[in-house]
Write a structure and sequence with these properties.
The structure is a single chain. By secondary structure, the protein is of the alpha/beta class. Helices cover about 30% and strands about 20% of the residues. The chain has helices spanning about 15-30, 65-75, 75-80, 100-115, 135-150, 165-180, and strands spanning about 5-10, 35-40, 55-60, 65, 85-90, 120-125, 130, 160, 190, 210-215. Strands 1, 2, 3, 4, 5, 6, 9 and 10 form an eight-stranded mixed sheet that branches. Helix 1 packs across helix 6 (about 165-180). It is globular. The protein starts with a strand and ends in a 27-residue tail after the last strand. Mean pLDDT is about 75; it is low at about 185-235.
């Protein structure tokens, strides 16, 4: 008999979101489960109805999350709400150093959940990357300026990774805990805001932001209030 399978859906232009998806899949297989990673452009083959759990990795590009990913989430709302499900919004704002960046990441995450009309068990924002080699020369300066807007120093000559992999691992463990005890999350809801180090951080150690763990029912990620007119304060083109 095949062991239970976790479906990991991702959208990736330059490969960084795929790395995040593969990182989650590796954690799942290390826990003794099967994981299947599927790109969003092949989402028709990704049927979550018989999956033990669902992970969605959705980077921000050109002021919005990928349309194929949002459409897939909306189409499979029942399976996502049934869960356990982990939804990750990937952006530079999520790695930002300021309250404004964290607010922007929170708004992007809210937009993703509200557009797809889903209620995942765990929804979180995590830092993306600035892709140097895969970006046309005329656009590289703009990406570095976008990183600087969030207090991040993107190297001029090579790719810069702003994902906090240690924080991602903690999210993976929370998700795996739900896989083994999905009823244990019922009735609990907590919001974990990012902690800012006292010393200036490096690009390798930017904290993940905004974890919302909530039971079924509509609440905006990063808040404990019911759905409201959550309008993104800004959008980040560099989830990768």
């Amino acid at each position: 008999m095949l062991s239970p399978t976790v479906l990991v859906l991702y959208s990736s232009v330059h490969g960084h979101a795929r790395r995040i998806a593969e990182h989650v899949a590796s954690a799942v297989t290390a826990a003794g489960l099967r994981a299947r990673t599927v790109p969003a452009h092949d989402a028709r083959s990704a049927d979550p109805e018989h999956a033990t759990g669902i992970v969605v990795v959705a980077p921000v590009h050109h002021r919005s999350h990928d349309g194929d990913t949002v459409a897939w989430m909306a189409r499979h709302r029942a399976a996502i709400d049934r869960g356990p499900t982990l939804v990750l919004s990937v952006s530079l704002a999520a790695a930002g150093t300021s309250a404004g960046s964290r607010s922007e990441a929170r708004a992007l995450l809210a937009e993703l959940v509200l557009r797809s009309d889903v209620s995942p068990a765990i929804a979180a924002s995590i830092g993306g990357a600035v892709d140097h080699d895969g970006t046309p020369p005329f656009a590289r300066a703009g990406l570095r300026e976008e990183a600087a807007r969030h207090g991040l120093d993107a190297a001029a000559g090579h790719d810069t990774d702003f994902t906090d992999w240690e924080a991602l691992a903690k999210l993976e463990q929370r998700f795996l805990a739900l896989l083994t005890d999905p009823a244990g999350a019922a009735g609990r809801q907590h919001v974990v805001a990012p902690s800012v180090p006292a010393s200036p951080r490096t690009v390798q150690h930017s904290p993940a932001s905004l974890l919302t763990h909530r039971p079924a029912g509509r609440t905006v990620p990063g808040t404990s209030a019911p759905d409201g007119p959550a309008v993104p304060s800004g959008r980040d083109p560099s989830g990768r």
